[in-house]
Amino acid sequence: MQGLIDSLSHWAQLFSWGDQGWGDEFVQAAGMTVLLSTAAYIFGVVVGLIAACLKVWGGVVLRGLMEIYTTVIRGVPELLIIYLLFFGNERAINAILGIFGITQPFQLNEFAIGVFAVGLISGAYSTEVLRGAIQVIPHGQIEAGRAFGMHGFMVFRRIILPQTIRLALPGLGNIWQLILKDTALVSVVGVTELMRISQVAARSTREPFPFFITAAILFLVITTFSTKMFRKAEAHYDRGVRRAG
């Protein structure tokens, strides 16, 4: 019993706030994980929606380019993609700026690189989820919208997009879970999220277990909460369908 009390007291000291503990750092890192995941998710969904539309309605060239994008991103390990973007992104941007005579070096911060990398990765998976949802929508509904005088964008906004969101939500929820786990990989470029602060704290105290198990618990808490949010969103978008059935 005394050993358990001593262990709890030691853990409380490790995760106390201020200079003596790591509690405030872990809270900030959890916030960074959520912020990074959210930004990358939004970016990935936008990229995925554009790529999905090009795959469905684009010409041969655009469809081919989107196919290359999704194949390459899904076929290359996520960590390698992050490394390639981290070490090659700034060089490519500076080379492009040099063409226009801009010699001042351009430098992206670690957070922007993390969002861009994870967003591109999730965008490839979102593309296939959204493309599948678009193709399920009956073509007769699109023709009916045009018959009522709707132009192309109005048909997309009022008929295609709402149903695409409803049909794609379960798959997009799974992609959100993948993004949460992929944020741990961004620690290699210096973003102070949960995995990064766990590594720093473990090296500093030489007690890795308390910090890594705490990071795992925080990831599970975020995952559980976000899963409930996606289920509520799915129920919200399914209301009219249930009533019609």
From TrEMBL:
SUPFAM superfamilies per the UniProt record, alphabetical: MetI-like (SSF161098)
Transmembrane segments: 26-54, 106-125, 209-230
Localization per record: Cell inner membrane; Cell membrane
InterPro entries the UniProt entry points to: AA_ABC_transptr_permease_3TM, ABC_transp_permease_HisMQ, MetI-like, MetI-like_sf
PROSITE patterns: ABC_TM1 (PS50928)
Every ABC transmembrane type-1 domain range: 30-230
Keywords, comma-separated and alphabetical: Cell inner membrane, Cell membrane, Membrane, Transmembrane, Transmembrane helix, Transport
Membrane topology designation: Multi-pass membrane protein
Presence of the UniProt keyword Cell inner membrane in the record: yes
GO terms assigned for molecular function: transmembrane transporter activity
Coiled-coil regions, chain positions: none
GO CC annotation: ATP-binding cassette (ABC) transporter complex
UniProt entry tagged with the keyword Cell membrane: yes
Primary site of residence: membrane
PANTHER family registered for this protein in UniProt: ARGININE ABC TRANSPORTER PERMEASE PROTEIN ARTQ, CATIONIC AMINO ACID TRANSPORTER, MEMBRANE COMPONENT
Family from the record: Belongs to the binding-protein-dependent transport system permease family. HisMQ subfamily.
Identification of the protein by name: ABC transporter permease
